[in-house]
Amino acid sequence: MPAHREPRRRSPPLPAPRGPLSGEVIAALRTGEGPRAHAAGDADANPFGDDLQLALYVLYELHYQGFEDVDEEHEWDPALLGLRRSLEQPFLAALREGTGTDGDVEAALAGLLVEPVGDDGHSVSHFLQNAGELWQLREYAALRSLYHLKEADPHAWVIPRLYGRAKAAMVAVEFDEFGAGREADIHARLYADLMDDLSLETAYGHYLDAAPADVLATVNLMSLFGLHRSLRGALVGHFAAVEVTSSPGSRRLAAALKRVGAGPAAQRFYDEHVEADAVHEQVVRRDVIGGLLADEPHLEPDIAFGIEATGLLEDRLAARLLAAWRSNSTALRGPLD
C-alpha cells in the first residue's frame, strides 16, 4: 500500500465568480472594502443556483481554511455576516418548502433504511458500481473532495451544544472520523490518498471552480446547520442521514473502484466506511439522537428536517450527475486539471 499523502491544507485561491452576488463577495474579500449594502438584492432568484450557492460557500469557507491572500479578520466582519444571513434565509426557506417534514424522526430514519433491490435509476453509487467508467469515478471523487477533505469538521460544531449521552456518543463517532488518534487514519487524509490514486490534485478546495451548485449546496447545508446553535437538531439529523446511508453506498463505490482498476488506497477509503459507519449508524440512532431527544424533546422536528433536507439535496445532486453521465457528458463546470 502506498504511503499516506497528507491533503494539501494551504488556503486555496478565491474562485471565479458566477454572478453579481458571488462577484460582490469575492471582490469584497479581495479588496477588503466590504460588500455594498444592497448586494443581497443582486442574488439569483433561485436559492439553489450557482450565484447564491457560491457566495454562501465562500462566506462559509472563512470559518474553515479561508482563502489565499484574504485577511483572516474577515471571518467576523459584520457586513459580510449580515450579507451571509440574507443569503441563508432564502436557502433555508427553500429547504423547508422542499421537505415538508411532519417532524417524525423515526419515520424520517425509516425512509433511509429502505435499500432498493437493485438500481432504481436514481442512485449514483448503483450507477457507478454497475456501469461507471474511470472518468466518471474521477469526476465524482473531485466533486466530493469539497467535503471529504474536511470530513467531520462541520459536524464538530455541534459538540459544545450537546449534553451527556448525546455529547459522549457524538465525540466517540467523531473520534473515529478523525482517525481515532492516528494521523494516518484521519478520513480527510484517506480521501487524499484516494484522490492521489486516481491522479487527482489533492490540494484543499482545488476543485471548487469545477463544482456545480448542487455540489456546493450539499456542503453549504452542513455549514448552515453547524454555524447556528438554533439548528443543532438539524445538524444531528444531517449527521444521522450521512451515517445511516454511508455503509451500503460505500460498499458499492468500493466495488466500482475495484472494477475499474483503481489502486488499493482508492478502495480503502470506502472499505473503511463500510465497516465503521455500520457501527456509527447504531450509535447515532441510539445515543446521539436518543440522548438529544431525552434532553431536548422539542428538537424532534428539527432532527427530522435535517434528515429530509439532506435527502433533498443529495437527490438533486444525483439527478444532475446521472443526467450528465448517461448522456456521456461531464458533470463538471470545466475539465479536470
Structure overview:
This protein is mainly α. The chain has 13 helices and no strands. It is globular, with a radius of gyration of 19 Å. The mean pLDDT is 91.
Task: Produce the secondary structure layout.
Layout: H1 20-31, H2 50-61, H3 78-99, H4 105-112, H5 124-131, H6 134-148, H7 153-156, H8 164-177, H9 187-197, H10 213-226, H11 232-259, H12 264-295, H13 300-326
Helix pairs in contact: 1-2, 2-3, 2-10, 3-13, 4-13, 5-11, 6-9, 8-12, 9-12, 10-13, 11-12, 11-13
Mean pLDDT: 91
Following the backbone from N to C, one meets helices and strands in this order, namely HHHHHHHHHHHHH
Shape: globular
Bin the strand percentage.
under 5%
Q: Biggest sheet, in brief?
A: none
Structural class: mainly alpha
Annotation, overall tally of beta strands = 0
Low-confidence stretches: none
